[in-house]
Every structure is written in C-alpha cells, then in structure tokens.
Write a structure and sequence with these properties.
The protein is mainly α. It has 10 helices and no strands.
Length: about 210
Amino acid sequence: MTGDGRPVEEFTAELLAREVFGPLGGVVEIGAVNATGTWRLAHVSLGDFLDGRGAEVDVLLAGVRSACAFDSTTMSIAWDLGWLRPHDVTAASLLLWSGGLTGVPAELESPAVVRHMCQVGAALQLTRLLHASVTAAVTARTEAKRGARALAAVLTAACALSGGPRPSDVLRLWRVAHLVHVLRPGSDASDAGRSAFRAYEHVLTATFGD
C-alpha cells in the first residue's frame, strides 16, 4: 500500500498515465496552432480544433488504453489534466513544450518564433509520448506485437493531431533519445525489460520502416 492507502499498482498506473498524458497537452496545443497556418496565437481556437479532431483523439485514447492496460479511473486523468477541454494557448506554454530551446526573445509571439517553437515542441512531446506509452505497456506486460500495434495507432493519431513530424521520424528520435538509455548495460532495466523494449521497437520499425 502507498502512504495514502492505495495499492501500489494503482499508484504506479497513475504515475505512468501522467507521463503518457502530460505530453498530450503539447500535442494538442501545438496542433491547434499549426492548424491556423498563420502561427498567430490570436487565430487559435482549441475548442474548434478538438471538435474537428474527435476521431484522432478517440483512436489515441483507445490505443493507450489497450496497450497500457489503464482502467477507466486511470484513463480519466487525460480529461482531468484539462488538455482535451477548450483553453487558451499561450506563447509561454509553447515555450515550455519546446523545452525553452528558443530562449525568451523580445517577440515571443511573432509567427516565426511561434512556428519554430511548434516544430521543436511537436518533435519533443511526440517522442516523450511514445516513450511513456511504451514504458507503460512494458510495465503492464502487454504482449509486444499486440501492444506495439496499438501504440502504432496512437503515434499515427498523435502525429496527425500535432501537424508535426511523421511517425517514422518520431520513432528515430525515440531510439536515440530514450531507447539507447534503457538498453545500455548500466541502466535500471531488467533483462526482461530490455527484451520487451527491443520487441516493441522491432514491431514499430516493421510498421513504420527504418
């Protein structure tokens, strides 16, 4: 049991879900900005964007639930975080999603800076989403072929939402940014965990190509 009386399994699932659904905020906010085609924040309506992207959101959430074995309470975290409800998109949030790569220029809301933050942020948050999803699926011991196929649908939907990189590009980024650290000899991953991550990578590569 955890300190608040919940089973360890429930607490772990909540932490994993927050790791998965956290980057989703960047995906939808960046997608809404990219969808304007102007990169002017005054033109962004997250509500209109989400109204027109219900199919992608449904596919993403269904794939996460299938691969990561999240129950209804855990899945509700996606809504509790507020990313899937209408809200304002600010330059400050785009700066956060892009890891602060641009610094804080005087014209933070200029279309050129906003577009650059969206490009960087989409790649960063999609890569984080993929790693968190694979980690949760491996933790749930979901069979790799089934889990990776579900996550391939998640990644395809997330890339479509973001208006950013292709799934194959995100897969390449994930390998060098995260997977190599899991597979290195000194990592905390067990032998079984490393084998599971390799299996997921194999199926995702077969799906999206090298």
